[in-house]
Prior knowledge:
By secondary structure, the chain is of the alpha/beta class. It has a single domain, classed as Glycerol-3-phosphate (1)-acyltransferase (3-Layer(aba) Sandwich), CATH 3.40.1130. It contains seven helices and seven strands, in the order ααββαβαβαβαββα. It has a seven-stranded mixed beta sheet, with helices on both faces.
Amino acid sequence: MAFLRSLLHALWMLLTVIPWAIIMLVASLWRRGVPLYWMAVRWLGWAVHGARVLCGVRWRVHGMEHLPQGERSPAILLVKHQSTLETFLMPVLMPHPLAFVFKKELLRVPFFGWAMGRLDMVHIDRNQRAQAFNKVVAQGRLLLDQGIWIIMFPEGTRIARGQQGSYKNGGTRLAVETGAPVIPVAVTSGKCWPRKAFVKRAGVVDVSIGRPIPSAGRSADELMREVETWIEAEMRRLDPGAYATSADAAPSPAP
Length: 255
């Protein structure tokens, strides 16, 4: 039954993404920026709510009150990455437009990637590391000034449930360069939507948003260690069963 539900959800996404991407590409001829972004979020909403209805994948959010309240208050979201779910869900949840930092190869994905290319995102060439980071800083500064939040996955790729990846300091380097606070986010998406898995399982995904961490006067490495400590401790609190056999110990997150 789970396979059939997952198949229906995959068909739902496929059948809706193609016409909606075409609509976005046409609309982008005269509409760009934030209005086009919210058009994209509408399809992401269809995708995650489709997972809720068809596959029983639900979510609950903790810590929305920690998000900056100003219309142009900057923020850099650093999110635990276990599956595709948080990629779709975070824009649906957040009150501000988000700009993802992603590898440029994704722009080649038919329809989905083509539509992404029309949005205010930061796509980089990972083979040119220095130039890539300079681009992230330059574009990130402009976007943050417009009230668009930057979202990054510090582990760089999807990590299996119960595992911890290598946290890279690109997000905290950007924070130090721009003066924006970082907001750590823990997501237990692997419980229901595992990485590289077709079948989705019914259940509840917890999204926990931490308090903003100021970047002023901090080093990027020190700041990332604080982010990593909070996220990994929070993951163990939210999903203790996944870490029951892990040799890693993590301190409790700050309240």
